[in-house]
Amino acid sequence: MTSHPIKVLWIHESIRRRPGLFVELAEGQAGQARGLIEHALTRLSSPRFGNEASRVELRVWPGPPGPAFELQDDGRGWPLDVISVAGAPMSRIDRVMTEFHLEPDKTNRAFRAPPEPEPQVWGPFGGVGVILNALCSRVTIQTARDGVRVAARYSRGGIIAPVQPSSHGPSRGTRVIFEFDPLLFDAATQAHVSSKEVLEELVSRHPSATVEWVPDYPLGAYPPW
Predict the structure, then answer these.
(1) Residue 139 and residue 153: Cα distance in Å, rounded?
(2) Residues 152 and 125: beta-carbon distance below 8 Å
(3) Beta carbons of 144 and 169 less than 8 angstroms apart
(4) Do the beta carbons of residue 193 and residue 39 sit within 8 Å?
(5) What's the rounded Cα separation, in Å, for the pair 57 and 52?
(6) Backbone angles phi, psi at 176, to 5 degrees
(7) What is the tens place of the pLDDT at every residue in 3-36?
(8) Which tens digit of pLDDT belongs to each residue from 101-124?
(9) How many CB atoms lie within 10 A of CB 79?
(10) Chain center to CA of 165
C-alpha cells in the first residue's frame, strides 16, 4: 500500500485553487470575477452590513496593465483596533483580509463560520476580504474612522504593507482598490467584467451606488495605490 503525504493548504491557497467554491459557486472566470465585484459592492452599500454609507462610488481604471476597480464609500470606516492572534498583535483589518472569521461553537470543541460576521466588530468585509485578497494581484485599503486614517496593501492572500497611519485616502469612509490576478483571470475576462454592460447592471441593483470609467488620467495616477 502506497501512502501519500497530506498537504495542508493555507486558506488563500484553497481559494486560489477553487475560487468558484468561495464566490457563491460562480462558474468560470467571468462569473467568479463578476461575483467578487458584486460581493464587494454589496458589503459596502447595504445597511445590513453596518457600514452606514449613503453613497458608494465604483470607478474603473482601464490600465495598463489591466483594469483596476476602486470602491469608495462615505460610511463610518472600518474597525481600527488591534487584536491578539496566536499571541501576537494584529490589526483587525489585516486579519479580515487574510483569514476567515471563525468562532467556537456552543461546545467550545469545534469552530464554525457564522453566516454573517458581526459588522460592528469585523467591518463590512468580514468573510469577504480574504477572498478578495486571494484572487487579486493588488488590493489597497484606505479607511478613516473617528478622525484617524490608515492604509494597508495586500496581494494574492498575503500582506504587502500592514495597516499603518496614513496621510492619504478619504477623510471619511473607506476606499478599496483591487486588481484581479492575471494568473487566474485572463485579459478577455477582465475586459468583460469591466464593461459598461456588466457594471451598469450590477450598480442598478444598489440604489446608493454609481459607476464611472476613468479613461484619461495623469501619468503615475493609476490608480491611487
Answers:
(1) 6
(2) no
(3) yes
(4) no
(5) 14
(6) -120, 120
(7) 555 554 577 888 888 877 777 656 789 999 999 9
(8) 644 444 444 334 444 555 555 566
(9) 19
(10) 20
The three-class DSSP label of residue 165 is strand
**Residue 178: CB atoms within 10 Å:** 22
Give the Cα separation of 34 and 194 in Å (integer): 9
Residues in the chain: 225
The 8-class DSSP code of residue 103 comes to E
Q: Find residue 152's DSSP bridge partners.
A: 141
User: Half-sphere exposure of residue 188, counting CA atoms within 13 Å on the CB side?
Assistant: 3
Q: Which of 72, 47, 78 is nearest to 145 (CA)?
A: 78
Q: Which of 4, 27, 32 is nearest to 131 (CA)?
A: 32
Q: Check if the beta carbon of residue 152 is closer than 8 Å to that of residue 138.
A: no
Take residue 192 and report the three cell numbers written for it. Answer: 468583460
Distance CA 151, CA 142 (A): 4
pTM: 0.83
pLDDT reported for residue 109: 40
- What are the φ/ψ torsions at residue 62 (nearest 5 degrees)? -70, -10
> 13-37: string of b/e by CB count within 10 Å (b at 16+)?
eebbeebeebbeebeebbbbbbbbb
Give the amino acid at 101.
H
Sheet with 158-165: strands ordered across: 158-165, 148-155, 136-145, 173-180, 68-73, 56-61, 209-213
